[in-house]
């Protein structure tokens, strides 16, 4: 009888130990959640760098906040005059998801390039904007290109542009400047949701309205489309593992809202 009791106690102890091993305590440092990185009131945390002007100079109030929206505005412009701009968030990131809603409105400002009609972008893995040259047109980065329809033609959004960079797509090195996504065209002034998943230099994915439309990997320095001469030549083929995020101004009014980021641990 005593022997049976000892056996039962041993079995219960083993069972209890097994349960405790399976039920591991949750590490609060592994929890991920979305956080807003735009307060809807002002440009706190965001700094512009516009071609031809020093970092921090919001030339002609290109980037403004109205009605809770972050806007690219050309109200004060007579002509675009190649004032390509980027609004940088203060913190560099490596592994994260980023999402927001955007829409194009109104008419393109005079002097804008034909290809910049209803054209903007989210620049990721950007170089430090404080080191950009005065007349530099784009940061060295990976661009998630945002395009609005022109009312007639098919025009995908969530494409990839590579200013000063290259990537591998379908396991092949691609040196062309644009890779089109599989998204449909969004005409008019409708809001479109864009999301990006960034895993340092391993894989990057683009999502439009919840659907994956493009994926590629191994982003690295290389190629052209940035007017910095040979400045980046010594870093050719260097992997892009992290960088700043910026929103683009390319001559067409555009609005952004619900700008959020989730760090991936």
Q: What is this structure, in a nutshell?
A:
The chain has 265 residues and is mainly β. It has one helix at residues 2-22, and strands at residues 35-36, 46-50, 63-66, 69-72, 85-89, 95-104, 119-126, 142-147, 159-161, 165-169, 172-174, 178-179, 192-199, 203-208, 211-221, 244-249, 254-263.
Q: Can you write the helix and strand succession as a string? A: HEEEEEEEEEEEEEEEEE
CATH topology name, in short, is: Jelly Rolls
Supply the helix-strand structural class: mainly beta
What's the CATH architecture?
Answer: Sandwich
State the low-pLDDT regions, or none: 8-30
Count of individual domains: 1
Q: Give the tally of β-strands.
A: 17
CATH superfamily: Exo-inulinase, domain 1
GO molecular function: hydrolase activity
Pfam family, one: 3keto-disac_hyd
Domain 3-keto-alpha-glucoside-1,2-lyase/3-keto-2-hydroxy-glucal hydratase: 33-261
Description:
It is a single chain. This protein is mostly beta strands and 265 residues long. The protein has one domain: Exo-inulinase, domain 1 (Jelly Rolls). The chain contains 1 helix and 17 strands. Strands 1, 3, 4, 6, 10, 11, 13, 14, 15 and 17 form a 10-stranded antiparallel beta sheet that branches. Strands 2-5-16-7-8-9-12 form a 7-stranded antiparallel beta sheet, with no helix packed on it. Strand 13 and strand 14 form a beta hairpin. It is globular and about 45 Å long. GO terms for molecular function: hydrolase activity. InterPro entries: AL/BT2_dom (IPR010496). It holds the Pfam family 3keto-disac_hyd.
